[in-house]
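In response to reviewer comment 3 from the previous cycle, which asked for concrete evidence that the modeling workflow produces usable outputs, we include below a single protein chain processed end to end. The sequence was submitted unchanged, and the resulting structure tokens are shown without manual editing.
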Amino acid sequence: MALTARVRTRDGWAVSHAVVTLTDARGAQVLRAEADGEGAVRDATVLSPGAYTVIVTAVGYAPAAASAIVTATGNAEVGAVTLARQGGEELPPPGPWTIDPAHSTVGAVAQHLGISSVRGRFTEFAGTVEIAPDDVARSRVDAVIRAGSIDTGNRMRDDHLRSDDFLAVETYPEITYRSHALTPAGPDRWTVHGELAMRGVVRPVDLDLSYLGTGADPWGGTRAAFRATTELRREDFAMNYNQIVQAGIAAIGTTLRVELDVQAVHGTGLPAA
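The workflow returned the following structure tokens.
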């Protein structure tokens, strides 16, 4: 091999669509090679001994440059080249991710009597995240929630929330969310643009998403953690039920704050544990 290199993100993930260009001391291009699926570059072009400049580019990443010395044998080992995402934002490695319900929470907070909050969560849900390799903005999120799994810690209140006054779970057993775009909102923060279908109504809903990082799990997999929030107006989803108590105060607030704490496993399935 005349030239070898490894192209990685800051987290150590392979950049499979990277392109490596080698220029000589005069600035003339002498080699151009593409990384394979593991982010490795191996090119057998015979090179003259001397000093060269290595330029590494990939869609969605800031270019990186490094120096390389071609030895008398015609070989150059560049080693690992790290690419940073454009704008400094980082995301998990590309490909499919499966949301792990056992280590995730889908919750909502509603104001009660204008002075306190009632918290609830859905205990049955599933979803996938697809991180696009070439254009992060094309990444996708798809999630399905069983509406009847609402749990606020009070059986009477939960039965009322399942009724036609609120979620109408007999008629609309599922709540779904499907995204269609992703835009940066700051370091490690993104806005997810999508549509929420609930109680037979479909509305555009944006999620304020924070990426918390990735790491290995005890079952040999790789996990990514996210936190997302948004606010919903109940009336936008035909949930207009309320009671007016003394002094005109509504028993239930008009908005819901949705809070998502999500772990996702790299791949299309979950570990047995």
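Residues 244-251 have pLDDT under 50 and may be disordered. We consider this sufficient to address the reviewer's concern, and the full set will be provided in the supplementary archive.
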